[in-house]
Amino acid sequence: MRATPPLLVLGALLAVTGCYGGGDGSGGLPADIPTGGTSREYTYQPGEQITVDLTMHADGRTTPFLSGYQPTIEFAYQEQTAECSARLPVDLHEFPPGGNHVIGLDCDQEITVHTDTPGFRLLEDGTEYGTGEVVFTDARP
């Protein structure tokens, strides 16, 4: 039996709530989360956690990274680039090369993401080491 999108969203939400966050219980999700299939853009303020599904290339980094890792993230929407700090879920001690996980990113500047263009690239010194998409949920009031 195939998983339906609501179940996938629930799984992503459950994974993200374990991320090290601001301690407010929100899981770091933005205040203006979409409530349905609407096509919109969402703005994340500096330091506000952006929940992402990240895949690191198996032939990229040779060592895993920990929470606090600070790569450059290039968001596809409006080609925005920011320095971001990775926040791993509580049950994930390190993110291995070739791995795929839902994590949090805290960026140093305002980032706008569109639901139709959620993709991004993870870069180190201009070299791409991972790709992913912003995870949108309807978990916030």
Summarize the structure.
The protein has one domain: Elongation Factor Tu (Ef-tu), domain 3. Helices cover 9% and strands 35% of the residues.
Question: Care to describe what's here?
Answer:
- With 141 residues, the protein is mostly beta strands.
- The protein has one domain: Beta Barrel (Elongation Factor Tu (Ef-tu), domain 3).
- The protein is built from 1 helix and 8 strands.
- It has one helix at residues 5-16; strands spanning 41-44, 49-56, 72-75, 80-87, 100-107, 111-114, 119-124, 127-134.
- The strands form 2 sheets. It has a 6-stranded antiparallel β-barrel with strand order 2-5-4-3-7-8. It has a two-stranded antiparallel sheet with strand order 1-6.
- A hairpin with a 2-residue loop joins strand 7 (119-124) and strand 8.
Q: What is the strand and helix layout of this fold?
A:
Layout: H1 5-16, E1 41-44, E2 49-56, E3 72-75, E4 80-87, E5 100-107, E6 111-114, E7 119-124, E8 127-134
CATH topology: Elongation Factor Tu (Ef-tu), domain 3
Helix vs. strand class: mainly beta
Share of helical residues: under 10%
Number of domains: 1
- In the CATH hierarchy, the architecture is Beta Barrel
Radius of gyration: 14 Å
Q: How many strands, which pairing sense, and closed or not: the largest β-sheet?
A: 6 strands, antiparallel, barrel
From the structure above, extract its key features:
6-stranded antiparallel barrel; 8 strands; two-stranded antiparallel sheet; mainly beta; 141 residues; Elongation Factor Tu (Ef-tu), domain 3; globular; 35% strand
